[in-house]
Write a structure and sequence with these properties.
Blueprint: H1 2-12, H2 14-24, H3 32-39, H4 42-45, H5 50-57, E1 66-70, H6 83-91, E2 96-101, E3 112-116, H7 122-132, E4 135-140, H8 146-160, E5 161-169, H9 191-203, E6 218-224, E7 227-232, H10 235-238
Parallel strand pairs: 1-2, 1-4, 2-3, 4-5
Antiparallel strand pairs: 5-7, 6-7
Helix pairs in contact: 3-6, 7-8
The structure holds S-adenosylmethionine (SAM).
S-adenosylmethionine binds near residues 75, 83, 100 and 102.
Length: about 240
């Protein structure tokens, strides 16, 4: 299937395909799953994530959302990729959509901003957050390497996601794959272990243990097959001292 897609792209040309997608997309704008199909992102086709995105992000639809997605797609191709960025751009009609990829990408379209960098580089991510954040939504669909997922989350979640905003981690099945730094259930350093710790952060302020174990401001953690939605809470709310 992948090679058939590559052949079609080769014959028709990337820019022509993108023009056709943009022509068809307005008719699909109200339905995220349909929009994802038009732009050919695997968020619907391969994974069925779009109904979950609608569940959690529909409330942001008509707001001036600032969204960052790690992983633009197309890998080494300069002219291919951006399917999900276009999907978000059309879904959030007032949104500004930022995409980060380790590979060079040439996308010159309204309300889409492309950044080149490595998601495992905390210094780079913090600077990106300072310049272009705070974000209402951050989506990690990049390397899927467990250490990278954790590094990106630590760099962005507390300081660069707005209260009530969402940090989404896709393709978490790599938590169980050796080649991505994963392992059996409970393996340290994985994305799943991060998410399990974040569940503690939701309620940690009720623990009367030693000071200095500050909780991250997490309002809620929603875990589904392969994908998690972490909602940020208010720092002030999370800083309420534990009941003694
Ligand atoms: C699965 S694709 C993204 C697909 C896209 N989000 C979509 O839904 O259409 C993953 C992308 O992550 C990029 N990537 C891989 N390692 C990365 C890293 N360390 N930092 C940033 N991007 C990375 C790859 O170049 C690739 O384009």
């Amino acid at each position: 299937m992948a090679s058939l897609r590559a052949k079609i792209r080769h014959v028709i040309g990337d820019q022509r395909i993108i023009r056709v997608q943009r022509f068809v997309a307005p008719a699909a704008r109200r339905n995220l799953s349909l929009l994802a199909r038009v732009y050919d992102t695997d968020k619907q086709r391969g994974h069925g994530y779009t109904t979950l995105y609608e569940r959690h992000l529909a409330a942001f639809r008509d707001r001036p959302v600032n969204l960052l997605e790690i992983g633009i797609g197309g890998y080494d191709s300069v002219t291919w990729g951006g399917s999900s960025l276009r999907t978000w751009r059309d879904y959030f009609q007032f949104g500004e959509i930022h995409g980060l990829d380790i590979a060079e990408k040439r996308i010159d379209e309204p309300r889409i901003h492309v950044h080149r960098g490595d998601q495992s580089d905390q210094v780079y991510l913090r600077e990106l957050g300072r310049r272009h954040g705070p974000f209402d939504v951050v989506i990690d669909d990049g390397s899927h390497v467990n250490a990278h997922i954790r590094t990106s989350f630590e760099a962005l979640f507390v300081d660069h996601v707005r209260p009530s905003g969402f940090y989404v981690i896709e393709d978490m099945s790599t938590a169980y794959l050796d080649e991505y730094g994963g392992g059996p259930p409970g393996h340290p350093g994985t994305s799943m272990r991060l998410v399990q710790d974040l569940c503690d952060d939701v309620n940690r302020r009720h623990w009367a243990g030693p000071a200095g174990r500050a909780a991250r401001p997490v309002r809620a953690v929603h875990v589904y097959e392969k994908i998690a939605f972490v909602q940020r809470g208010d720092v002030e709310v999370c800083a309420v001292p534990a009941i003694q």
